[in-house]
Specification:
Alpha-Beta Plaits; 2 domains
């Protein structure tokens, strides 16, 4: 399950290896999909096994780090898509790919950067609540 982790510049996560501790202490394997660290408001998009979300959230909350489940997903409207391929080269996560001249989407790989949405000439891609 994809979750968003947000912490401020005061958070210990900037000075201490909180994420490494979270993995060691909870035993939960996390996968960092995207990170925007600028020192002020820092954001990470993390994939956590569904059964580990509560435990991971509890651990991070002890450090006053905000954890929010992602409730949206990229959707492709295959009826609108004209298989132009414009979105494929822009996708940093290989979530969009060509399969036998048809452009396909693997939502599980999406890191929600939204780059594909703006480039699509027929508005076949959008974020939707799940
Ligand atoms: S939002 Fe679009 S471009 Fe970005 S990772 Fe997801 S599918 Fe790829
Ligand atoms: S940019 Fe839009 S129309 Fe072109 S392949 Fe991607 S989803 Fe389909």
């Amino acid at each position: 399950m994809k979750i968003k982790v947000v912490y401020s510049k005061e958070a210990k996560a900037l000075k201490e290896p909180i994420f490494a501790r979270a993995i060691i202490n909870t035993g939960i394997e996390i996968n960092v999909l995207r990170a925007e660290i600028d020192g002020e408001k820092n954001l990470m998009l993390i994939d956590v096994p569904k059964e580990g979300v509560e435990k991971f959230t509890d651990f991070m909350n002890k450090y006053k780090i905000e954890v929010t489940p992602i409730k949206e997903s990229i959707i492709m409207d295959k009826d609108k898509c004209i298989d132009c391929g414009a979105c494929v080269s822009l996708c940093p996560a290989d979530a969009l790919y060509s399969d036998n001249f048809s452009i396909e989407l693997d939502e599980t790989k999406c890191i929600m950067c939204r780059a594909c949405i703006d480039v699509c000439p027929v508005a076949a891609l959008k974020m939707e609540n799940i």
